[in-house]
Design a protein that fits this description.
This protein has 287 residues and is α+β, with helices and mostly antiparallel strands. The protein folds into three domains: 9-94, no CATH class; 98-141 and 242-263, no CATH class; 145-239, Roll (Chitinase A, domain 3), CATH 3.10.50. The protein contains eight helices and eight strands; from the N terminus they run ββββααααβααβαββα. The strands form three sheets. It has a four-stranded antiparallel β-sheet with strand order 6-5-8-7, sandwiched between helices. It has a two-stranded antiparallel sheet with strand order 1-2. Helix 3 crosses helix 8. The radius of gyration is 31 Å and the shape is elongated.
Amino acid sequence: MKSLKLASIVMSAGLLTLAVQHSSFAEKKGAAAMPPDVLATVNGKPISKEMFALYYRERMKKVPGSENTPQNQMASINELINSLLIAEDAEAKKLDQRPDVVAALELQKDQLLTQIAIQDYLKKHGPSDKELKKEYDKTIAGKSTKEFKARHILVKTEDEAKAIIKQLDEGADFAKLAKEKSTGPSGKTGGELGWFAADQMVAPFSEAVAKMKKGSHSKTPVKTQFGWHVILLEDKRETPAPTFEQAKAELSLKMRRKALEKYISGLRKSAKIKFTGDAGAAPAKKK
């Protein structure tokens, strides 16, 4: 019987790199030696170091806290062998030719290639530090951000909002009214929204807040797609622009997203796309 000794697994730079420092197979006398990158064969199908590395990495992810030990390595390769045997049996039974399985395999292949293509594209076209600094200087440097601390009461109609404003003009407590009348989720906490930048709110709301004085409530109802708002501006402040190092990660994500959108847009423009059916239609049930 063949015996297998797997070497240690090396973690480097946050990525799993498997280095089989020593592996030996006790073959029958006179048997041909296996290629150095093959750990085992299953009915002639090789299990390469790379295949095992991929399988082992995913297995370790699924078991948080599991340690890299020879026992875990051996258990993993035996699991992989079992998996290959089952897959081989499925092919012998022609399960891989079922329409649903063909579709699933094709989808998995396409999704994997998509991930790899995106990684490859962004590696080549992602922003450099010089490009990030240029974008930072253009859009962020020296620009402070206005932030507001407010409460609001959300109702369905303009008349309801006007009635609330009248009560506030007469000295009613804003937080108490919010708890009683607001239909929004913040009503339970007296309409409290906390601190927010103008661009975090829908335009009509942020525009109204920007014109208000600290400590005042809106004198006319503010309409958004959510309904009618009555707003209380509790405080306002200006925060300095973040440093380049503070903004770098978010800026990189934003620029990488734009690069990816450009990549996809280019592919779509050069592609021949034709819709031939209703993607929302439910598949017919099997009889």
